[in-house]
């Protein structure tokens, strides 16, 4: 909660503050910026608008005053460890996340999780309301905070309120399972602009609005019974493309890419997967396809290596612990069955890496495999394209990602169709250079032009224009 008298004209509200609390070897505690696309996109807007960022600092039971870090004014929201369990790991990660990703894993519905979600959303809304100046713009991020727009509007009708959903919005047949479906939709209708990754997500939301409220919709416009209008449409998120390309041109990073290939035994083809270890990412489907190709002799471990980076994620949620066991069992089996002393089939890495290393991995990879079963956007696909300034490399991309709407010359796959996925992997491995370049050129045009700055400026411009008279 804020206790200073500072008021600002632009407020971002997200579950996590864009900083991590770190303790150095000598015991010194400090805040380290966690570099992500959102911070990169919003930092300039923050600086020119006297902005503040409201969010949870990432540790339970931490009482903190507002502070400045890395040029950002940060307003911490306190969560108790019980709230972290119920609001974050429970309702956000074990109810909404699986529900919004096509129930790939079963969502769990618990009333005490919902109650914590409401209470925490109220706290975020109160923190935003107390830091926002008269007539300020507040931009609320993501599915953990869907009740905040309405709560804020009730407290502060003078504000202009935007909301962006980073994950999909499900079709009504799935969404309607949610016992609190009406409250969530009404929460979002508190915004002036509700942004989604894909037009299909915006349409799903509008259909939920029609089914659950008396509001009317026409294309991207929604009209509420009190006459207020809002916009619900797609604003596909992107990356800071130029900075990825710059890193990829650095001689030390290019040398590192060469070193990675050498360390892998200089196979003819390096394939790469980079995902949070999440059941939405289709890592198991990818491993199954690769394992079968090895079993059938369509690819050999001497020629082809798969590097799979699986970033640790949500390890206190049961479904994620089980997934980790399954994936690691499969990797172990494939390596045991097909590996040789000098060539491993899969190089599996269960940890985070600095951005430089991720760029080197992308440069080293002839084929990038993105096989998500459902993904709001998938930034990894765009990062691979931004890095490949040499114009080479093949992106195998699931049609169930938001990125597939934009990267139309990728090799698009349905990851549920294992035979189709296997054929696409072989096609990627064997693709002639001229075709690789032609496909990559079209994708690079898209990713370099429509970067994350374009995303935030478009959203904020339409938010400014949406202000009801
Ligand atoms: P995520 O589900 O986290 O994001 P994604 O879009 O791929 O998925 O973003 C992951 C980011 O983390 C990428 O920038 C990637 O480079 C980075 N990363 C992954 N593994 C890493 C590792 N081991 N070390 C370092 N960095 C790593 C959610 C939605 C997506 C949506 C984004 C943004 O699920 O659909 O694209 O938000 O809106």
From TrEMBL:
Alphabetical list of InterPro entries matching this protein: Glyco_trans_20
Biological processes annotated in GO: trehalose biosynthetic process
CDD domains with a match to the protein in the record: GT20_TPS (cd03788)
Gene Ontology molecular function: any one: alpha,alpha-trehalose-phosphate synthase (UDP-forming) activity
Family stated for the protein in its record: Belongs to the glycosyltransferase 20 family.
Protein's recorded name: Trehalose 6-phosphate synthase
């Amino acid at each position: 909660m804020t206790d200073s008298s500072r008021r600002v004209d632009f407020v971002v509200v997200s579950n996590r503050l864009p900083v991590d609390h770190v303790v150095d070897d000598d015991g010194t505690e400090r805040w380290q910026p966690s570099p992500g696309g959102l911070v990169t996109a919003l930092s300039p807007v923050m600086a020119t608008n006297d902005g503040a960022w409201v969010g949870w600092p990432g540790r339970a039971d931490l009482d903190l005053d507002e502070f400045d870090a890395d040029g950002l004014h940060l307003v911490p929201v306190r969560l108790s460890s019980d709230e972290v369990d119920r609001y974050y790991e429970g309702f956000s990660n074990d109810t909404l996340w699986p529900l919004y990703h096509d129930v790939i894993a079963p969502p769990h519905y618990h009333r005490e999780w919902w109650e914590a979600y409401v209470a925490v959303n109220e706290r975020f809304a109160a923190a935003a309301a107390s830091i926002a100046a008269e007539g300020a713009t507040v931009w609320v991020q993501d599915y953990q905070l869907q009740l905040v727009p309405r709560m804020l509007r009730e407290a502060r009708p003078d504000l202009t309120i935007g909301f962006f959903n980073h994950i999909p919005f499900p079709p009504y047949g799935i969404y309607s399972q949610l016992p609190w479906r009406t409250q969530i939709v009404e929460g979002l209708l508190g915004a002036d602009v509700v942004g989604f990754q894909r037009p299909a997500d915006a349409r799903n939301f509008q259909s939920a609005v029609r089914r659950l409220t008396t509001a009317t919709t026409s294309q991207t416009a929604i009209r509420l019974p009190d006459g207020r209008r809002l916009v619900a449409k797609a604003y596909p998120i992107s990356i800071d493309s130029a900075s990825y390309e710059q890193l990829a041109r650095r001689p030390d990073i290019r040398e590192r890419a060469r070193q990675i290939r050498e360390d892998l035994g200089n196979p003819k083809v390096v394939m790469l997967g980079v995902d949070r270890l999440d059941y939405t990412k289709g890592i198991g489907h990818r491993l199954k396809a690769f394992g079968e190709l090895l079993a059938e002799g369509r690819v050999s471990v001497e020629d082809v290596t798969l590097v799979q980076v699986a970033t640790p994620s949500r390890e206190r949620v049961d479904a994620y612990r089980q997934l980790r066991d399954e994936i690691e069992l499969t990797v172990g089996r494939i390596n045991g069955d097909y590996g040789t002393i000098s060539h491993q089939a899969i190089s599996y890495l269960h940890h985070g890496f600095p951005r430089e290393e991720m760029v080197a991995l992308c440069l080293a990879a002839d084929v990038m495999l993105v096989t998500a079963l459902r993904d709001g956007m998938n930034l990894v696909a765009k990062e691979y394209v931004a890095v490949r300034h040499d114009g080479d490399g093949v992106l195998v991309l699931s049609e169930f990602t938001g990125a597939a709407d934009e990267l139309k010359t990728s090799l698009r796959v349905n990851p549920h169709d294992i035979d189709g996925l296997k054929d696409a992997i072989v096609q990627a491995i064997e693709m002639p250079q001229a075709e690789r370049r032609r496909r990559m050129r079209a994708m690079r045009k898209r990713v370099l032009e429509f970067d994350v700055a374009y995303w935030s400026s478009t959203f904020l411009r339409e938010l400014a224009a949406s202000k009801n008279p």
